[in-house]
Amino acid sequence: MKAVYLTAPGQFSTRDVADPEINGPMDVRLRLGAVGVCGSDLHYYRTGRIGSQVLTSPWIMGHECTARVESVGSAVSGLAPGDRVAVDPLIACGRCDQCRAGRANTCRNQRFLGCPNQQHGCMCELLVMPAECCFRVPEQLSDGAAVMVEPFAIALHAQRLWGDPAGSSVGVLGAGPVGLCVLGALRLAGARSLVATDRLGYRLDMARSLGAESTHHTERSDVVREILAAHQNGLDAVFDCSGEQAALDQAAALLKPGGSLVIVGIPETDRVSFDINALRRKEIDIINVRRQNDCTQDAVDILAHGELDLDPVVTHHFALDESSAAFDLVANYREGVEKALIHFD
Question: What is the average pLDDT value for the chain, to the nearest integer?
Answer without folding.
Answer: 97
